[in-house]
């Protein structure tokens, strides 16, 4: 059975992530793997056994504290998982494990060894994906499976309306086809939102019958194509965010291979001009 890998980096505030992951694993019919990643820096101490200054001071890991923390956290997560499973009447196959190390390295190693259909992360910044913290951004851009990012206190909703945001790449058709395979059980309405710096795309899309081509090649009719002109080149996050809110979307999707587009979104949102706050999840899709 394919896995949904949920990363717990803050065990003291993980209830919502566990609840969300349970609902998501149930809907997508995935095995839920909860993994607690310990930060080794929290379990180090300074030591210098030598009197001579010729011997440097070392950082060493306190193995006893690390193991005690691991045991206590895993027991707490298991108890909360069982409570939430009963509370929400969800019979989701699941397991819990722990790793120690840098989050991005640990996640990539785990995925390469154990495989995962999807990765879910909780953003620590309540301003939304557009202000993704550096650690999660690094994970999202470097991991090898689709990454689903939720906001603090987000509530799970099935994907009925999806906004696929891009600045137009030839790979869009293939990506949308994969997205349909992933979310098809929800029969979503998918809007391909093309953010451009001119009106040329809209003209080109109409002339080439882009929507008709999408429908034909994906075999899926519930697709629309929209375009928005971004003349400022610094409001991408706000444009996509507001479009999703105005259209009552359940999910925003970005294509990871279009890395420059994602980085423009994060960089352009640093001014914090987003007016319509939203708790929408963002799925960064990978080939």
Please characterize this protein's 3D structure.
- With 287 residues, this protein is an alpha/beta fold.
- It has 2 domains: 3-41 and 66-137, HUPs (Rossmann fold); 157-285, 3-Layer(aba) Sandwich (Rossmann fold), CATH 3.40.50.620.
- It has helices at 15-28, 63-87, 103-114, 134-142, 172-183, 200-208, 210-218, 236-246, 259-268, and strands spanning 3-8, 31-38, 44-47, 58-61, 94-100, 118-122, 147-150, 161-166, 189-196, 223-229, 251-255, 282-285.
- The strands form 2 sheets. A 10-stranded mixed beta sheet has the order 5-2-1-6-7-12-11-8-9-10, sandwiched between helices.
- Helix 1 crosses helix 2 and helix 3 (103-114) runs parallel beside helix 4 (134-142).
Quick tags:
287 residues, alpha/beta, Rossmann fold, 2 domains, 9 helices, 39% helix, 24% strand
Topology, element by element:
Elements: E1 3-8, H1 15-28, E2 31-38, E3 44-47, E4 58-61, H2 63-87, E5 94-100, H3 103-114, E6 118-122, H4 134-142, E7 147-150, E8 161-166, H5 172-183, E9 189-196, H6 200-208, H7 210-218, E10 223-229, H8 236-246, E11 251-255, H9 259-268, E12 282-285
Parallel strand pairs: 1-2, 1-6, 2-5, 6-7, 8-9, 8-11, 9-10, 11-12
Antiparallel strand pairs: 3-4, 7-12
Helix pairs in contact: 1-2, 3-4
